[in-house]
């Protein structure tokens, strides 16, 4: 559905088909006022997902608020890659960690499709963790949530670590589309060159990743080579694969702990 269809079906509580086949109907005044208010917010640039309070990801419905990044279709490639590796002969990892979970879209999706695995997730935002907890409950998935900066204290033995970290260079934030500027800056900004979180993850991952565990990360446009170099320079880690999105942009990097 396009934006207008999403808006009207949500507010009117009807299907897309009934929008066009329901004939002429008089809209209640309250609904007219509501739609006018919503359209004004959208004209000012507020993302439709925040206006509706929800979005779809991996075939599931997720609540989103301005406290969390809006899930992108590209991030489904991160989840799909993790699921593909979970089906290799070694079987699904016993423990999986999602770093910077935000809305919980990655962690909840992995919990849905890897029910035999223990899914853990971290975030430095307490508000984001509340949204993630609600999404896990709403989708009937169990996820262990930790208020933590990168790695959960005292936790280790993860067979897989996944992350879509903040990767926008600080100097580029203000030039982004106005819709993006409604999203939490902490979920966007990756430092001066956009690579701060990759450095931290690479520096510490071996201490919490089991052998031969996997590190799977989404990267921004033009960052793949730098992140591969970081991984290659990390003792005991090796790049396994780089996965491109449907536009041919290198989007996900897979690494494995060697020792």
Give the structure's gist in a few sentences.
Helices cover 35% and strands 21% of the residues. It is built from 9 helices and 9 strands.
Strand content: 15-25%
The helix/strand order is HHHHEEHEHEHEEHEHEE
Provide mean pLDDT, rounded.
93
Strand order of the largest sheet: 5-4-3-6-7-9-8
The total of helices stands at: 9
**Computed structural class:** alpha/beta
Describe the structure.
There is one protein chain. This protein is of the alpha/beta class and 259 residues long. It is 35% helix and 21% strand. It contains nine helices and nine strands. The longest helix is centred in the first third of the chain and has 15 residues. The protein starts with a helix and ends with a strand.
SSE blueprint:
Elements lengths: L2 H10 L3 H6 L7 H15 L4 H5 L1 E4 L2 E4 L9 H14 L8 E5 L5 H9 L4 E6 L2 H13 L5 E4 L10 E6 L32 H9 L4 E10 L5 H9 L4 E8 L5 E8 L2
Parallel strand pairs: 3-4, 3-6, 4-5, 6-7
Antiparallel strand pairs: 1-2, 7-9, 8-9
Helix pairs in contact: 1-3, 5-6
């Amino acid at each position: 559905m396009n934006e207008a269809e999403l808006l009207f079906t949500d507010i009117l509580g009807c299907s897309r088909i009934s929008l066009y086949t329901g004939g002429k109907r008089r809209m209640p005044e309250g609904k007219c006022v509501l739609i006018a208010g919503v359209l004004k917010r959208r004209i000012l640039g507020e993302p439709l997902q925040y206006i509706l309070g929800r979005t779809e990801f991996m075939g599931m419905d997720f609540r989103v608020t301005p406290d969390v990044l809006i899930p992108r279709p590209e991030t489904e490639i991160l989840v799909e890659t993790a699921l593909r590796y979970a089906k290799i002969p070694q079987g699904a990892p016993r423990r999986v960690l999602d770093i910077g979970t935000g809305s919980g879209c990655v962690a909840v999706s992995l919990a849905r499709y890897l029910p035999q695995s223990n899914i853990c997730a971290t975030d430095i935002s307490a508000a984001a963790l509340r949204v993630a907890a609600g999404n896990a409950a709403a989708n009937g998935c169990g996820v262990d949530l930790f208020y933590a900066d990168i790695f959960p204290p005292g936790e280790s033995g993860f067979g897989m670590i996944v992350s879509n970290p903040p990767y926008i260079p600080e100097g580029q934030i203000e030039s982004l589309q106005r819709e993006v500027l409604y999203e939490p800056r902490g979920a966007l900004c990756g430092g001066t060159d956009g690579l701060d979180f990759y450095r931290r993850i690479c520096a510490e991952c071996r201490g919490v990743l089991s052998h031969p565990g996997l590190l799977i990360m989404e990267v921004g446009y033009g960052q793949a080579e730098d992140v591969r170099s970081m991984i290659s320079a990390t003792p005991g880690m090796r790049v396994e694969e780089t996965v491109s999105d449907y536009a041919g942009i290198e989007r996900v990097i897979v690494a494995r702990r060697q020792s």
